[in-house]
Design goal:
Layout (H helix, E strand, L loop, with lengths): L1 E4 L2 E5 L7 H11 L4 E6 L5 H4 L2 H6 L3 E5 H7 L3 E3 L4 E3 L10 E3 L2 E6 L2 E8 L7 E6 L4 E5 L18 H14 L5 E4 L7 H23 L4 H6 L13 H12 L12
Parallel strand pairs: 2-3, 3-4, 4-7, 11-12
Antiparallel strand pairs: 1-2, 5-6, 8-9, 9-10, 10-11
Helix pairs in contact: 5-6
The structure holds zinc ion (ZN).
Zinc ion (ZN) binds next to loops.
Length: about 260
Amino acid sequence: MAFSATDNLVLVDSGAPGSSAQLDAALKTFAPNGRVQTLFNTHYHLDQTGNNETFSAAGAKIIAHERTRQWMSTDTWVPDQDRYEKARPKAAWPTQTFLTTSSMRAGSETIEYGYLTLAHTSGDIYVHFRDSNVLAVGDVASPLRDPALDYFTGAWIGGRVDAMDVLLKISNDQTKIVPAYGVAMTRAQLKAERDVMEEVRVRLFNKIREGAGPKDMMEAGLLNGLSRTWKDPYKFLYDASKGLWAHHNKIDPNVV
Ligand SMILES: [Zn+2]
């Protein structure tokens, strides 16, 4: 998404590789004399950082969580494709990183941004345009695509619920919540997705306690009867199960 303060543009995520002409045309229509001076990356995935080099070369500063810079500067394992993704060239790396929260001004707009711990990757952030009341959340809300947990970086279902609670806390009924894919959501829609994630978390904990794997979970209909469906339920359950390995200490009878 893009925000314009006269000719000073703030962009959240730079799009997939190869989409720069399309993005450029959209920005020209949005603000003909605008120049992107600040680019946020909501996380390290290519769909969010694919055109970073172009904006960086044109003088934009790139703000992201420190973990996003780390994942971009090292080769990463892509488990479901059984290969390594090469580290990104230095020109694509964020130029300004933070750990918890921070803020900036663009014209009269106050922009607050902060860390969403282990929700989709280990470096997710929100970007809140306070005065316009628009909240960009990257892949931490997923109304269109299946919710995804990049467990290799540490993302897990409990992290996702916690992150959505943070987003609920900083939003109100008028907030326009902008996910990476799909149309803007209301706070009520975000709350509904959060509740589905929490229900899935409880069911997952129960199944893991029984020693079930993702296949058993599929057969037991773990994702049945919820207010959303999955295009690839096995992949989600596989990643969610993997993501739980680092959190088995939280799975005790007192948790649920
Ligand atoms: Zn992503």
